[in-house]
Design goal:
By secondary structure, this protein is mostly helical. The model has no long low-confidence stretch (mean pLDDT about 80). The longest helix has 15 residues.
């Protein structure tokens, strides 16, 4: 979950999400640690970002919406591999 207070990566990710929403894109954020602190989730909801927590729900979303997805931004490389292996097969037109 992008937590803006004092974490450069979180500030950067929040700004990227804001920019994508500003471009009219549908943005879905999936915290791989499944943490959804209400105050931060509310900030994302107010921006128009959908938040999906829970590994099962995330994989289900990727499976169901994959053909319509065009871009996946994976941050924090030490956890990105958990999703990366699911992207090529289920998101044929996507860019990672």
């Amino acid at each position: 979950m992008p937590i803006r207070e004092g974490r450069a990566g979180s500030v950067r990710m929040t700004r990227i999400l804001e920019l994508l929403v500003g471009l009219g894109r549908r943005v879905v954020f999936m915290p791989l640690n499944n943490a959804v602190p209400e105050q931060y989730a509310d900030q994302l909801y107010q921006l128009g970002v959908t938040v999906i927590a829970g590994t099962g729900e995330q994989l289900e979303y990727i499976r169901d919406a994959g053909v319509d997805l065009r871009l996946a931004i994976l941050s924090r490389p030490h956890v990105a591999w958990q999703v990366l292996e699911h992207i090529p097969d289920r998101v044929p037109a996507g860019v990672v």
